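User: Is it possible to get a 3D structure for a protein together with its bound compound? The compound here is NAP. I've pasted both below.
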Amino acid sequence: MAGADHPFDYSGRVALVTGGTRGIGRALSETLARQGARVFFCGTNRELGGLVAEEINRELPPGTPEAAFLPVDIADFKACSAMVAEINAAAGGIDFLVNNAGITRDNLLLRLKESDWDEVMAVNLKGCFNCSKAVVRGMLKKRYGRIIFLSSVIGLMGNAGQSNYAAAKAGIIGFGRSLARELASRNITSNIIAPGYIQTEMTAALDEKTRAEISGAIPLGRLGTVDDISNAVLFLLSPLADYITGQVLQVDGGMLMA
Ligand code: NAP
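Assistant: Yes, that's possible. Here is the predicted structure of the complex:
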């Protein structure tokens, strides 16, 4: 099980976490479910999604709502609408949307293919639009909602070899802040988390030398863990963050003090 003990009880809340089969999204789905929320998470890998749901549910305290995996590609607008309709029918609305799913297709601009650009935009940026648009109507009716976006410090500072990823992650910040302005009067908050380097499959490809160099450039002296990010999301979903909207919270060990 992920994470330390958490002070919050999310009983009665319904959460949709995109990209919950691995990494940050999986840790968050586990902790939210353990803390009482009814969690729906999506991903494209059906087999893994089913296994993860089984693993999460096996560990849940008796009486806790079971987590459910939905095999959905968030780049597909219609599939996102159908996913949200299915959750609304099963659970009576969504309280928390965590736009977490993301991919990389890294290369220097000269070698970056059109498909590398298009795929990253479709999943990382349009996926946020697809899911947010689908959930917002229900949140407006309820006059309650918490929307979180997973951006990246790369979206703030740029990175050689990641122009497509940086552009999508910067776009998420503009999108998330616009939603904060549009939705605040209905008690719906929209915040953005910008992780630094986190140990997940996304960063597993880094060699030891690069990893050591990165750690050396981080004031707290280490890469982050999935729980470091999941904890920040849990805080923004909690009542302690009711007066916070439109913010970009950097969770990066002090790497980028912008
Ligand atoms: P990860 O371990 O690679 O997991 C990505 C998740 O997204 C998986 O569950 C994957 O599931 C899902 N996903 C990918 N494409 C999808 C699609 N088209 N539709 C639905 N789900 C999809 O990533 P992570 O490191 O946990 O990162 C999570 C988020 O944090 C991402 O947005 C990432 O950009 C951001 N972030 C990560 C870091 C880092 O250092 N790791 C740093 C800054 C920001 P399937 O494979 O089943 O599709």
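Residues 111 and 136 are 38 Å apart (CA to CA). The longest strand covers residues 188-195.
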